[in-house]
């Protein structure tokens, strides 16, 4: 009868850890920066064996070189697969992640456009939005230097508080670490004059942004070749 292998007494299976202490759950809750080197490696490795958890296997990978994490880039697949429980597939995953990290470190980030005034925003959205047949509400997420992180379309349809809810607007801002936002929507009629509903929704979002520490810098309404900034019109 074949003997079933068990984890060593000093080893703990990841599934036996409290949920908030498991590497994947910690990453989702706190972000990758909150994890130790061994926890990050354990996520790459995925699973351990009956005798050792992925965390233990990760720690053994780190001890293969005298420099710890810094020596991972110098390891070969043959050296990694000598560790029991680390086959070719897992070894390739680890080394691929190391190489991606190395390439990111030496690759300069592309310059992100900086928003200086409403004309910069209008230049980005005018041709895209001026011919739309429905109202599209978009949020522009900005860095601390007013550089564009990205833009996200929040809703399509008539602008009102039930469709454009602060929760939808600021969820993306928090997720992307935005320091501020600019709101943009179009008027299919071609006339950018803001309605009372436009103003009410804007002020509601400004209040929510102030509470969250993510200010709404402006709200642009795009018409047919023209636009209005609610900030410049003192309507927010």
Q: How widely separated are the two ends?
A: 77 Å
Q: Could you name the CATH class of the largest domain?
A: Alpha Beta
Order of helices and strands: HHHHHHEEHEHEE
- Here the CATH topology of the largest domain equals Cytidine Deaminase, domain 2
Query: Total domains, how many?
Result: 2
**Total count of helical runs of at least 4 residues:** 8
Give a short account of the largest sheet.
5 strands, mixed
Q: Any idea what the radius of gyration is?
A: 26 Å
Q: CATH homologous superfamily of the largest domain - what is it?
A: Cytidine Deaminase, domain 2
The CATH architecture of the largest domain can be given as 3-Layer(aba) Sandwich
Number of strands: 5
Question: Could you name the ranges where pLDDT drops below 50 across 5 or more consecutive residues?
Answer: 1-7
Q: Could you say which structural class the secondary elements and strand pairing correspond to?
A: alpha+beta
| Helix proportion range | 25-40%
Q: What's a concise summary of this model?
A:
The chain has 236 residues and is of the alpha+beta class. It has helices at 23-30, 37-45, 54-62, 77-80, 88-106, 118-129, 166-175, 196-212, and strands spanning 136-142, 148-156, 180-186, 216-222, 227-229.
Question: Topology of this structure?
Answer:
Layout (H helix, E strand, L loop, with lengths): L22 H8 L6 H9 L8 H9 L14 H4 L7 H19 L11 H12 L6 E7 L5 E9 L9 H10 L4 E7 L9 H17 L3 E7 L4 E3 L7
Parallel strand pairs: 3-4
Antiparallel strand pairs: 1-2, 1-3, 4-5
